[in-house]
Amino acid sequence: MAQIIPPKYVKQVLVVLQSHGYLAYLVGGCVRDMILGVHPQDWDICTSALPEQVRELFEHTVTTGIRHGTVTVMIHSHAVEVTTFRSDGDYADHRHPDAVSFVGDLTSDLARRDFTMNAIALPPDGLVADPFGGIADIENKLIRCVGEPERRFEEDALRMFRALRFSARLGFTVEEKTLAAIDEKAPLAAKLSAERVRDEVEKMLLTPRCEILRRVIGAGLLDGFLLTRGEESMSAELARISSLPRKALPRWAAFCAILEKRGMISSVRGFLTALRLDGRTIRCCEDCCALLKTEPPRTAKEWKKLLNRYGVDTADCAARCHDALRGGRCRDALRAVLKSGECFSVRHLAVSGDDLVELGLRGRELGEMLNFLLDYVMDYPENNRRELLLQLAGGTEES
Q: Concatenated DSSP letters for 60-94?
């Protein structure tokens, strides 16, 4: 295991629990990350102490998930989730246990977890508890469910997305039986909230292996949002998304462009709205996909017109997506225009609407003159000067 030492505030929680006679272990993703040599973002602890006993031991606690045995312990400004050993009851909604039972042993607690790599516990003395072979699976780069995969996915349908997301993020292979269970239980994904599905898809889009979404689609996990499951050949297109910056907006736009091109969605807006994305992302992706259906600008003036109509964010997104999906150097051409500082918006003109009002222009005439001046300055950027533009508008600065 890599030599990653938990922060002092995490050790403090472990020591306090153990000093009062309770078992306490680091567990879940933080242990997995430590084994992989990655510094964990979050620290989770499981313990034999009941929630009310945990609350008695620490001055500042938050009952974030007390129904499921979880108490958040606050040490200064840091939060550590402490959960009592438990076993889960039935999962009527295929997402959350209807009830939980607190148990006294660690193995029973680890047995309810999703994957073997997340079912490893580490006490302060460093003697790892690994009853399901999670360390070996990590060494073999294998994602395997704890126990029967069909049961794990019936309990929580989101685990099917998580298995594929971990595969893309870590470069691991999903074990054969686990993969077969995803294909079998995929219809359960229809019971998940759109927000949960959206979050998982976005996390996959932000991995280095976006082609995993071909497996997600092929299994039927997105049937509630797509018209068809597409073809295997789309894997190569999806892989190109990974060349984009690890930002949600361009990757969503590229994903939508691929789906729309293949007739898998009726509209970009409808697809993203169903997944509950925010309005700005929806508008930008819709405009970006529309631009990708046209030839890219060939001149600096054409780029400036595009910037004026769509704005920098959408133009940049479209340029990046064009280069990633079709090849080319659109982004370089756009950057050259932006770097030049040349005017592409009436806001950047050396004169304002107020200046033209002083010349006697009003209403439609005012708007037409601003557009005329902008068009002129796009052709002759060096002439974006106040005195000259006022003269063109029909007067001089003194008038």
A: SEEEEEGGGTEEEEEETTEEEEEEE-EEE---TTS
Question: What is the reported pLDDT for 1?
Answer: 53
Beta-strand relationship, 44-47 and 121-122 = unpaired
Q: What share of the chain is helix, strand, coil (3-state, %, to 5)?
A: 55, 10, 35
Hey, is 35 helix, strand or coil? helix
**1-135: CATH architecture:** 2-Layer Sandwich (3.30)
Q: 187: which 2 tokens?
A: 């219809």
Asked if 168 and 161 touch (Cβ cutoff 8 Å), the reply is no
> What is the DSSP secondary structure assignment for residue 145, as one 8-state letter?
B
Compute the CA torsion angle 383, 386, 392, 393 (nearest 10 deg): 140
Question: How many angstroms from the chain centroid is the CA of residue 241?
Answer: 14
Q: Count other C-beta atoms under 10 Å from residue 21's C-beta.
A: 9
Q: How far apart are CA 44 and CA 33, in angstroms?
A: 12
| Domain map (residue ranges) of the chain | 1-135, 223-341, 346-392
Nearest in space to 275 (alpha carbons), one of 343, 348, 202, 340: 202
Please determine whether the domains at 1-135 and 223-341 fall in the same fold group of CATH.
Answer: no
CATH number belonging to domain 223-341: 1.20.58.560
What is the C-alpha separation between 268 and 47, in angstroms, rounded? 47
pLDDT digits (tens, 9 = 90+) for 170-196: 999 999 999 999 999 999 999 999 999
Q: How many CA atoms lie within 13 A of 34 on its CB side?
A: 22
